[in-house]
Amino acid sequence: MTHSSLDRRSFVLGLAGLTGAASLGLPGAARAATPANISEAIHLGLYMPLYAAMNGGFFEKHGLTPDLKSAGGIAQPVPAVLSGAADFAVTGSGMSINATAEGAQMVNIAKIAGMISVWVVAKPGTTFNGPEDFAGKTIATLKFPSNTYTTPFYAMKQAGMDPENDVTWMQLPFGAQLQAVADGRADFATVFEWDASIGATQFDLEVVYSLGEALGPALFSSTFVTADFIEKSPEKVQAYCNAIAEAERALHENEQLFIDVATKEFPQIAPEVIAAARPRFFGDVPLVPRNPMISEQEWRTLIDHEAGVGTLRADLPYEQMVDNSFAEKATKEFGLS
């Protein structure tokens, strides 16, 4: 299995792109057979089921030899799939909609991240009960269209606020949000993991709210393929979903698996950060799904969020954009209900 190289410094606070991972010696692998070329947006902690499937030997168990390459951006797995350089795209699910709206029929086959993974970080003792508490404050985010910007923007709109005028936005480069809160230039930072746990363990900050849990289950990231690929290679699609289902089950049943995989895939992240992050991946609305099935509710939450912040080119129906048959079979045989 291989990874393409990325600029390691660019993503040092939780959006890291790093090297390939050898097997962790987890569940036994059967003889590998069919290549499976996978394009991920960038190397992110929220793609943990994919990395667990690779490190745990679950792809090999189901007859696939995975080759993972990081594409370098949220939209980049789409051309990789369309060109035939990749079979499977792993990225923000909205990218499947935009590609389809432009004439390329994409189909979502497996849930990879089941929550919009944005947390609010502030100085210790800060009270935060909901989006209304952003009013009159300065929020440090990454640059639009990052979800660190669009998700609080959407949450404020849902709360009846005017996010363009009720708050001050501080859009910063990778790694700068936590420092802005620590030195008082911003009241809040809205961040992904590993940044939330880096803030708590290394910047003396507190994670005060989960915007994702408040919004509810959502198809934040998924695996999608072309409709032609499903027609031509249904066995390969099924094997992929089997591996993801088994990996997601293992992540929920074995706490150490998360630690082992995260340590292997993100060696620049301190062990205490990984340990602090784990509960946020398995909360009331789990970021790591229990299984790869995609519900209509999760699809609708995604659509409403992305449409509300202007990042969708169309509102396409669940029935067109999701084929749950492979994930349902995989869940029944290998996953958790």
Could you explain how this protein is built, in words?
The chain has 337 residues and is α/β, with parallel strands linked by helices. It has 15 helices and 10 strands. The strands form 2 sheets. The protein has a 5-stranded mixed sheet with strand order 2-1-3-10-4, with helices on both faces. It is globular. Mean pLDDT is 91; it is low at 1-23 and 25-30.
Give short descriptive properties of this protein.
337 residues, alpha/beta, five-stranded mixed sheet, 39% helix, globular, disordered N terminus
Which structural category fits the helices and strands? alpha/beta
The helix-strand sequence is EHHEHEHEEEHEHEHEHEHHHHHHH
The value of Rg in angstroms is: 19 Å
The averaged pLDDT comes out at 91
Largest sheet: 5 strands, mixed
Low-confidence stretches: 1-23, 25-30
Total count of helical runs of at least 4 residues: 15
Strand arrangement within the widest β-sheet reads 2-1-3-10-4
* Count of distinct strands: 10
Distance between the termini: 30 Å
Q: Give the percentage of residues in beta strands.
A: 15-25%
**Helical content band:** 25-40%
What overall geometry do the principal axes of the alpha carbons give? globular
